[in-house]
């Protein structure tokens, strides 16, 4: 993906300017921290200091939403909902979507097709990174002669 990091950073800046909250589901936070390695604690500290980020915990309300969704899928005879993934991945995705539902999220920014499929029957829009706006090019200063 061309300019993925830049697109995500520009999205964050745009949402901050619009005074929007950015919800990070705690299962996603865990994965990000694992991938961050030694810089994970610093990354977490920056997120915690920002007033624009909130963490979506897997609390009791989310557990009920998650259990209801999984029970419906199992009742339909396909706990993975026909998606080609492991049961562990299916549960992870269900947790993320349950957190989003409980927190009344309007959009999830993700390239994960399984997340998009789970949200297809909800009011949550899934926006892939490739559809995010590219940041504007920085304008170069014009070289004026100072005489």
């Amino acid at each position: 993906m061309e300019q993925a990091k830049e697109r995500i950073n520009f999205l964050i800046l745009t949402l901050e300017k619009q005074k929007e909250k950015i919800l990070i589901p705690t299962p996603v936070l865990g994965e990000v921290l694992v991938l961050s390695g030694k810089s994970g604690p610093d990354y977490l500290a920056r997120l915690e200091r920002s007033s624009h980020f909130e963490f979506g915990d897997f609390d009791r309300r989310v557990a009920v939403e998650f259990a209801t969704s999984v029970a419906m899928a199992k009742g339909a005879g396909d706990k993975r909902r026909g998606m080609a993934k492991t049961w562990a991945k299916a549960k992870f995705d269900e947790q993320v979507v349950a957190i989003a539902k409980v927190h009344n999220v309007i959009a999830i920014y993700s390239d994960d097709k399984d997340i998009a499929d789970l949200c297809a029957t909800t009011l949550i829009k899934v926006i892939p990174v490739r559809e995010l706006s590219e940041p504007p090019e920085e304008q170069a200063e014009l070289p004026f002669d100072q005489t």
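The CA atoms of residues 39 and 124 lie 31 Å apart. The radius of gyration is 19 Å.
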